[in-house]
Design a protein that fits this description.
Helices cover 26% and strands 31% of the residues. By secondary structure, the protein is α+β, with helices and mostly antiparallel strands. The strands form five sheets. It has an eight-stranded antiparallel beta sheet. It has a six-stranded mixed beta sheet with strand order 2-3-1-4-5-6, with helices on both faces. One of its GO terms (biological process) is positive regulation of translation. GTP binds at residues 29-34, 145-148.
Amino acid sequence: MSPRALKPLEPSATPPEQIRNFCIIAHIDHGKSTLADRMLQITGVVSDRDMRAQYLDRMDIERERGITIKSQAVRMPWSTTDGTFALNMIDTPGHVDFTYEVSRSLAACEGAILLVDAAQGIEAQTLANLYLALENDLTIIPVLNKIDLPAADPDKYAAELAGLIGGDPADVLRVSGKTGMGVEELLDLIVEKIPAPVGTADAPARAMIFDSVYDAYRGVVTYVRMIDGSLQPRERLQMMSTGATHEALEIGVSSPEPVPTKGLGVGEVGYLITGVKDVRQSKVGDTITTHRKPATDALPGYTDPKPMVFSGIYPIDGSDYAELREALDKLKLSDASLQYEPETSVALGFGFRCGFLGLLHLEIITERLSREFGLDLITTAPSVTYEVTTDTGETVSVTNPSEYPDGRVASVSEPIVKVGILLPKDYVGTVMELCQTRRGTLLGMEYLSEDRVELRYHMPLGEIVFDFFDHLKSRTQGYASLDYEPAGQQTADLVKVDILLQGDKVDAFSSIVHREKAYAYGTLMAERLRKLIPRQQFEVPIQAAIGARIIARETIRAIRKDVLAKCYGGDITRKRKLLEKQKEGKKRMKMVGRVEVPQEAFIAALSGDVETKK
């Protein structure tokens, strides 16, 4: 704890000119959470005894993976020669799938610390977050972190950073989040460079909801940034989008644990508890005002995020459907980018079609559903949204292969994304080859420094949501970084591949793929299911088809009783008669028999794990 860290200021007594609101933005694993830990220690809001690594990462899954999933706001006091200031910091995620969390945090701030690893330099997500901050007109403070590492090259990357945002390399601050070196100077720079919040103290109250969480005991906890006016406890509040009114049971700040206060004034960042249990009452981006003296104009809010990847989530036990709905409602509160709607599947029963911002987002949500709510789930293969035009001119939006129209299809368009890949120049050839195999179109290539290149491509989203990132990392020994953003639609030669068991379609295994890759997908799934489905008393054909045309087939052989075991010698006609009788019985059984696909086979086939062979 620094001697300049003081007792936190009472929010209602803090004038706006003594408040600084800022966030930390960076690529994943560049040390945001570690730097936030040192700030908490130096400003004294967390004692050395209570300190732990990644203090602001509250979820077990964040701590295990070492990544930030949820933005966290915290208030810290800091004393300079100009007085004592209240610093409101928001620690943001670094992965591309959680960009929506970052964009909401930026709207609650006046400045941003752009953090770059002094051993790795600028990465793709660093650039993406920087552009987001510049769009919000934030003051940028460039900082190099991890300067204590043996591999650090601060001079080289300071020049790279200064060239990116303009300025002198000497102005780039050098810190170590691990040792605390340079962190006090950074706090001074925040007070000096970042402007104070602007608002009208005597105007009707307006507060922007930038985040919210669900507490089992206290209901919905809403995090707000005050723009105009002030809010006090026991005051009646009004949500401007719904018109609903609630009483403010508690108002306070996170420091970093919740601290109740006498109210929030202009520029403050804090939390509200109204005791509301209905999670739909608190919408991120909504404006809160007072019921007694309401504001007339709502704040602009946020643009709704567009899901990039769709997947079906089904409970293994059908009776858990209501619990799954409630769990998704609560998760939607803490993750505003999650979208879902009910869906039914012939094979899997009742579930939800969910929209995610990427594959990591999907993985984290399913992991949280199973951990926090104790649900056993099946997720179907991820897909993207296709626009299908039929011969009659009707356009259908398809997020699930089962929605694909059965009639003749005139054209299919798929979403494309603008991809930015940052990598060392030695790997340019192998990455270009990878992008071409995924139907990528090169837009440009730019050298950021002597040995670092940025490749820009237009690529179909469906080609990169599965395993593109894994292949990119393996081809570049982990040095490449990826960022992408939506770039519209393009028409492509896409077909729906159905998987048939004994002539019946199994909708969970259907997929929309490019015609060139249809045969490979069909043979892969047929082979996979042959290994996974237990043998029946009758022969089971597994077929992959495009419309009525079969493109691949595998057969699960029947379990046969040895009917010739009792024949010792004798005429061949006797043996033939027994075999014919068995054959007739198998034929009758095949006509009435149904193939039951076990749940383990569904899970293994959709996840690609074929080692669970029966």
